[in-house]
Amino acid sequence: MSDASPSVNDAILQVEHLSMKFGGLVAIGDLSFQARRGEITALIGPNGAGKTTVFNCITGFYKPSEGMLTLNRRDGSSYLLERLPNHEIPARAKVARTFQNIRLFSGMTLLENLLVAQHNKLMKASGYTILGLFGFSGYRTASAESIDLARHWLEKADLVDRADDPAGDLPYGAQRRLEIARAMCTGPELLCLDEPAAGLNPKESMALNALLMDIKDNTGTSILLIEHDMAVVMQISDHVVVLEYGRKISDGSPHAVRTDPRVIAAYLGVEDEDVETVLIEVGDEDVIEQLDTGPDATHGPGSSSSYFAGPVTDTVGHSEGERVTVSKGASKAGQVDARSGAAARPASPAEAKPTEKPSAAKSSAAKPAAKAPAKPKTPGDSNRGGGNE
Ligand SMILES: Nc1ncnc2c1ncn2[C@@H]1O[C@H](COP(=O)(O)OP(=O)(O)OP(=O)(O)O)[C@@H](O)[C@H]1O
């Protein structure tokens, strides 16, 4: 633990030069960004861009190959997360997370799920003895406080009426909110949510948005969010970081990001130089205007995102019906560490389409993708991306 430097006081999380390699596959390459305290920061990008890998590095599931992850707590203390054992990250650095797949104790009641989350606090109050459970007044006080906290979060998640039902009986959207409530019972300063809106209907998405805004406005907990649902991202995020092939291609306000040609290129699965053609075809004047004034040179690749990404051997984006969707396999990492010369991870059979996204020649496969959309045109407009799991 070290004292926080004044320059990072408003950054709850600083990711600096983070790299994560799996053999020859570079899942994350030299990634740097900040999540500011009290804000909702969204981490977005096509499937396989490396978002969950970033979460896994932050929460200690993976030890990064390179880089520094600094968590600055409100009390001024700072932790280098890559050096903490993963079981200490929630307790000491106050980082909590949820997963892409719901991980509740489905046979336990909602209340029990939230009490289990407070297990460490209760064990401490018991003095780690059986006698302590029955004898210590401290334990009784802690137990009552835990129940109060659980009830508080059940109310916030609009689930208090079902406190005594098994968690597995809840509808999907309610289970998602329960997971967030459970994470909040650990008193996190940084809450990492991996695709919380995946599979939710519009009403459930609205309830989720309300819960996340409530957390942001009333608890001071900062949120780092991976999400494919652009309606959620654009509505509630203060700051958006966009990844493609493990590299940052854009970083800014939701508006800046949704009109960034590099982001549109990544989401449509076309080369950067084809973006203008695509947008002219679909008639997006805002973005065309920005293309005329030129992109922000401080982020992302110069001429082509695939230049930065290294060799790419995967599918290009495609649209379904009239809606532009996030291509499921647009970025499934065909990225290879050039130094190792190892082969790219083969895409799964479902993803392994015979199309490629060549960096030099214009992809003929990309063209149909460009022509299909008629309604939403930018990432911000594509409502439920095809990337939802
Ligand atoms: N443990 C692992 N071993 C090998 N490769 C991995 C491992 N974890 C992730 N990868 C690879 O790293 C790349 C990034 O994966 P990651 O799951 O972080 O992407 P993502 O952006 O979260 O995708 P999605 O939106 O589909 O969840 C992928 O190519 C993935 O196959």
From TrEMBL:
Annotated ABC transporter domain ranges read 13-270
- Quote the biased-composition stretches of kind Low complexity, using this chain's numbering: 338-379
Gene Ontology MF terms in the entry: ATP binding
One of its Pfam families is: ABC_tran
Q: Is Nucleotide-binding set as a keyword in this record? A: yes
Q: Which InterPro entries match?
A: AAA+_ATPase, ABC_AA/LPS_Transport, ABC_transporter-like_ATP-bd, BCA_ABC_TP_C, P-loop_NTPase
Gene3D superfamilies, per this entry? P-loop containing nucleotide triphosphate hydrolases
Q: Which UniProt keywords apply?
A: Amino-acid transport, ATP-binding, Nucleotide-binding, Transport
- SUPFAM superfamilies, per the entry: P-loop containing nucleoside triphosphate hydrolases
Stated family: Belongs to the ABC transporter superfamily.
Q: What is this protein called?
A: Branched-chain amino acid transport ATP-binding protein livG (TC 3.A.1.4.1)
